[in-house]
Structures are given as C-alpha cells and as structure tokens.
Amino acid sequence: MKLTMKGDYGLRAMLDMAAYYGQGPVESADIASRQYIPEHYLDQILMALRKEGLVKSVRGPKGGHMLARPPSQITMAEVVRALEGYVPPMKCLPSPGVCELSPGCALREVWQKIDEMTWQILLSTTIEELAQRHRTGAAAETMYYI
Fold first, then answer.
1. Mind telling me which Pfam families this protein's record contains (predicted)?
2. Number of C-beta neighbours around residue 16 at 10 A
3. Where does 5-145 sit in CATH, by number?
C-alpha cells in the first residue's frame, strides 16, 4: 500500500481532532496550522471524511470540525478507505488478468499476504490508540530535552 499525502493529511487531521474530542469543534485553520497541512487542501479532505460519516462540521462563530464518533470507534482502515479507496501493493492483486504469470505466481501470493496483514493492522488500530501513542511520544520527547 502506498499512502498519498491525502491519506497522510487525513490521518493527521483525525489525530488532531481526537486530541480535542469532547471539547467541541476545532477550526480547520487550527488543524492546518498544527499539522502543517495547506488549509484549502484540508477543507477538501474534511469534506470527504464528512461524507463518509467520520467527521461532523458545525457552522458559525464557534464552529469547526469534530470526530463523528469516539476516537476509539474509528479505525485507520476507515480513514484510509474514505480517502484512498483500496490501493493494492501490486496491480495483479485485484486484477490477476493484468499479468500472464498471476495464476501460479509465488510473488503474487506473498504480495497478497502483505496486503492482508496491512489491512489487519489498519483495521485493528484506532484513532484513539494513535492519539495515545502521540501523547506518550510527545511527553517522552519533552522529558528528554528537559
């Protein structure tokens, strides 16, 4: 799987909103600033995440964006699928006909296992787990420099 900037930015935006979960909407300008994401591109990403039911938006002076569900109930797989769709590591996985060697190819079997394991990891990793890792890593980094 090759993640594009769209997927990377989307995951970072979800992590940012997870850090503020339960505190109300977060402005896209704030997310963009903290995560180093161009705001106009972030708005497109947030729109796609909203269409998939992962993000809610609130209009008005105290408006912004927030996770549609608790971060413990949103997986990396959901975010990646919403923004990237299915991206196989090799073209032959979804379409064996593109390669004459596919039917008995030992390499294809390995790529298929890699693909399955990748999705298992994405399905079993929640945004909350990532947010906890991020908080722990930031705390450790702060302690290291003190």
1. Rrf2 (PF02082)
2. 21
3. 1.10.10.10
CA dist 29 and 40 (Å) reads: 9
Q: For residue range 96-132, what is the model confidence (pLDDT) as tens digits?
A: 778 777 677 888 888 889 999 999 999 999 999 999 8
For residue 126, the model assigns a pLDDT of 97
Query: Token pair 């209009």 is at which residue?
Result: 59
Query: For the whole model, what pTM was predicted?
Result: 0.84
Q: What is the DSSP string of the chain?
A: ----HHHHHHHHHHHHHHHTTTS--B-HHHHHHHHT--HHHHHHHHHHHHHTTSEEEE-STT-EEEESS-GGG-BHHHHHHHHH----SSTTTT-GGG-TTGGG-HHHHHHHHHHHHHHHHHHH-BHHHHHHHHHHHHHHHHHHH-
**Exposed / middle / buried, residue 86 (Cβ in 10 Å: 0-12, 13-18, 19+):** exposed
Find the mean pLDDT for residues 64-71. Answer: 97
Asked whether the beta carbons of 45 and 6 are under 8 A apart, the reply is yes
Return the domain boundaries, the chain. Answer: 5-145
